[in-house]
Amino acid sequence: MYVCFFESLHGYNSQARVDRIYFFNTRETVKYLLDVNVDLIDKSMWLRFFIHKIKKYLRQFAIARKINAGHIRSVEIGETHWTTIFHSLDKSI
């Protein structure tokens, strides 16, 4: 399922309403709709890009919040490395 929403260069389109969320079965349907209606712009790509960046940031933030003094101390004395700590904390999320 492909979810998208459009914006029109002319402000109005007879086939697709502006700023309404549409659910399509395939991307080919969206491609056809964009080919037929030249004034439509698919804005959902930017939303997907933003969500991808936010997910990555929140995952890093969650891992950073789980680091405690014991982890820092074990790195200082050379027992473990940061990569092993990050990997173990990433699995627990």
Name its key features.
alpha+beta; two-stranded antiparallel ribbon; 93 residues; 4 helices; two-stranded antiparallel sheet
Task: Tell me what the structure shows.
The protein is α+β, with helices and mostly antiparallel strands and 93 residues long. The chain folds into 2 domains: 2-42, no CATH class; 56-92, no CATH class. It is 56% helix and 13% strand. The protein contains 4 helices and 4 strands, in the order βββαβααα. It has helices spanning 27-36, 44-66, 69-76, 82-92, and strands at residues 2-4, 6-8, 22-24, 40-42. It has a two-stranded antiparallel sheet with strand order 1-3. The chain is rod-shaped. The two termini are 27 Å apart.
Domains, number: 2
Instruction: State the shape.
Output: rod-shaped
Please trace the helix and strand order, writing H or E for each element: EEEHEHHH
* Count of DSSP-assigned helices: 4
Strand coverage percent: 5-15%
Helix-and-strand structural type: alpha+beta
Instruction: Give me the Rg, rounded.
Output: 22 Å
Concise synopsis of the structure shown:
The chain is an alpha+beta fold and 93 residues long.
Helix and strand topology:
Elements: E1 2-4, E2 6-8, E3 22-24, H1 27-36, E4 40-42, H2 44-66, H3 69-76, H4 82-92
Antiparallel strand pairs: 1-3, 2-4
